[in-house]
Give the backbone structure.
Amino acid sequence: MSQIATVATEPIQGQKPGTSGLRKKTPVFMQRHFLENFVQSIFDAIGGAAGKSFVLGGDGRYFNDRAAQVILRMAAANRARRVIVGRGALLSTPAASHLIRLRRTDGGIILSASHNPGGPDEDFGVKFNTPNGGPAPEAVTEAIHRATEAITEYRIYEAHDVDLSNLGETRLGEMVVEVVDPVADYADLMETLFDFNAIRAMIAGGFRVRFDAMCAVTGPYAVEILENRLGAPSGTVVNRLPLNDFGGLHPDPNPVWAKVLMDEMFGADAPDFGAASDGDGDRNMVVGKGVYVSPSDSLAVIAANAHLAPGYAAGLAGVARSMPTSAAVDAVAAAKGLDCYETPTGWKFFGNLMDAGKVTLCGEESFGTGSDHVREKDGLWAVLMWLNILAARRDSVADVMAGHFRTYGRNYYSRHDFEGLDLAAATAVLDRLRGRMADLPGTVAAGLTVAAADDFAYTDPVDGSVSAGQGLRIVFDGGARAVMRLSGTGTTGATLRLYLERSVPGPDGLDTDPQEALAPVIAAAHELAGIEAHLDRSEPDVIT
Ligand code: G1P
Ligand code: ZN
């Protein structure tokens, strides 16, 4: 006999969601009561699960399948009405966001640590998305955190595993478990937004595409859309089979971790277009034959050309970027008379702007681009947008980029990550700099004079909520800037992110290597923050 068990528990320290949900080492998540406490706290924070419906799925990393079974049994015990699950408990993050909206559920639970490696000793994560399909805003994540600090019991249905391998409906007690094809609805949505005929014709004409799914969740999505629906030859999508440890790869689409793709795109006989996506399918990297497109530039190019895609033919309502993202998109917005919003880091800050109809397009320098078709960033969406633009313009990536820089100028941009730092030491570096912010204007560092400095605070223009302490920004005379903040997605130690930007109006100086173009800003930022002196590091671990 199946029945509901009420299990006594105690608060577990460290269940505070970060930039994007709760992320921990997998063994931490597998500790007794750890997952259960957090899931019960989600339900408690949203006023209970009774009578509600949810979407559930994840990126397939190690523990995804077990966690999904636990969550289903807890949803049933908390008297949820229905849970819609991707077959095999798989759903890319954008596909989950779409399903929440399409099926008008009361939210969804996404199992992912995004671009962090997966496996028994790597990372796991759980994220709650609200009924608009977007990551829970801070008010909700704070309520979840408070619930984790007060929890005394959780409810779980004692039953066998639900078979998630076949499509259709089954029951877990009173609750309906509906297993759906994780790809179909998402692929259908993409067909409504982009000119599949034009892309198909371009590919049939010999345009070669390479998509690296990095052994993560986008494999089946990319195969269905690029190969089955758009006619790209079989084998266009590589690393297409999702593996629970991502084949030991680091599923983060950037030049460092997607080096194999970069080498191919810069090698002899390179394809015309290359792209990669991350663990849960919300990030993207775009590369042309011999030309890398930085995420900030990609956002700007999309802003300038989105009207070429049928779903965006009416133009954009406005655009938004996270504060550390380059101002390349601002130049396009200014030229086109679009409102342009600057938000803190993290996709959750775009939700209100999209719900209020203030923006259509959003992006982050961290390989995130998306629109109001869902409430998450969307890797394959960005790839299809690019393919649509190239098909409509009958142009190469290199020519599109060169033309863009000539028209709007170029924002040289780079992010330097210092990883595995001692948390106290990294915090101290930022605290020290924060303490000097007011006095910095007028200071000269490595030949650059500081024009303005502050700790970024954001007032949401829709609900008035204030998010302070979102990153230290230092603007130099002439407009170059450096931004510093600590990562909120890591699971060990601290990562200091240093974002660097310098704009050049053109027509000269548009072809410099970004690291070279940014050298003075890099030197000034190092000197002001005392990176060598206080962190004993001179070189970053990852440069994007
Ligand atoms: C990082 C990125 C941020 C992104 C988040 C989730 O967060 O910097 O832009 O929204 O991952 O993909 P961080 O580790 O910097 O807090
Ligand atoms: Zn991701």
Remarks:
- The chain has a mean pLDDT of 96.
- DSSP finds 18 helices and 27 strands in the chain.
- Residues 93, 114-115, 278-280, 282-283 surround zinc ion (ligand 2) (CB under 6 Å).
